[in-house]
Write a structure and sequence with these properties.
Elements (H helix, E strand, L loop, with lengths): L1 H6 L1 H10 L4 H10 L9 H5 L3 H16 L5 E2 L2 E2 L12 H8 L4 E3 L2 E6 L5 H21 L5 H5 L4 H7 L5 H23 L3 H4 L3 E3 L2
Antiparallel strand pairs: 1-2, 3-4, 4-5
Helix pairs in contact: 2-10, 3-5, 5-7, 5-10, 6-7, 7-10
Length: 201
């Protein structure tokens, strides 16, 4: 309770304002609590890195509902969802940053940048670093996933599983949540938000 009411009240208040899936509060609290306690080893804490991806996915689903990301019937557009139902978080962050999304040689999605410059790179890095950790843990990761990986697990081993990388990622996630709540205050019209992107199939 101290995490929500004393240490990070602004972040949890922002989550309430956004109206996002309540699971994000659980995932975020699991990430924040070990920062303020001594009951976790570095390795135990780093194993919570998948919560970063879960939080980002819930943010993206909320953005689709509000027209900020390509959607159909208030859900993410199928072009952003793989066959297993997983969200292509890389493409979602590219759309927010105003970068073209290509499928093969064809430009599939164009968009206007809405991310502040200070968040553009860090948002993408959160996605890549947390994905690289999952790919290392995933024995079914293909060669391309492993080759393109940021080698997060290897890095963490080299620094004795110190918790500082994940802690910094959690703080950046808090920044993203606060920015999103602030952005929605001036962009609460779903139809107007949808004018910022275009899907060409």
């Amino acid at each position: 309770m101290q995490i929500r009411l004393i240490y990070y009240p602004d972040v949890f208040k922002a989550i309430g304002k956004i109206g996002i899936d309540k699971d994000i509060e659980v995932y975020l609290e699991e990430l924040l609590l070990p920062i303020h306690t001594i009951n976790y080893s570095g390795k135990e804490y780093n194993n919570l890195m998948t919560n970063i991806r879960k939080c980002i996915e819930l943010i993206f689903l909320s953005m689709a509902e509000k027209g900020i990301l390509p959607n159909k019937k208030d859900a993410l557009h199928e072009i952003l969802v793989d066959r297993r139902g997983g969200i292509n978080t890389t493409w979602c962050s590219m759309i927010l940053a105003g970068k073209e999304v290509k499928i093969g040689e064809k430009i599939a999605i164009t968009s206007k940048n809405i991310l502040p410059n200070v968040l553009k790179d860090s948002f993408q890095q959160l996605i890549e670093i947390s994905a690289a950790y999952e790919h290392a843990a995933n024995k079914n990761a293909d060669e391309q996933q492993l080759a393109n990986s940021r080698q997060t697990d290897t890095f963490l081993k080299s620094i004795g599983y110190a918790p500082y990388l994940l802690r910094s990622m959690v703080m950046e996630l808090c920044n993203i949540i606060l920015w999103y709540a602030s952005y929605l205050e001036g962009h609460d019209d779903k139809e107007l938000n949808a004018l910022y992107w275009n899907v060409e199939l």
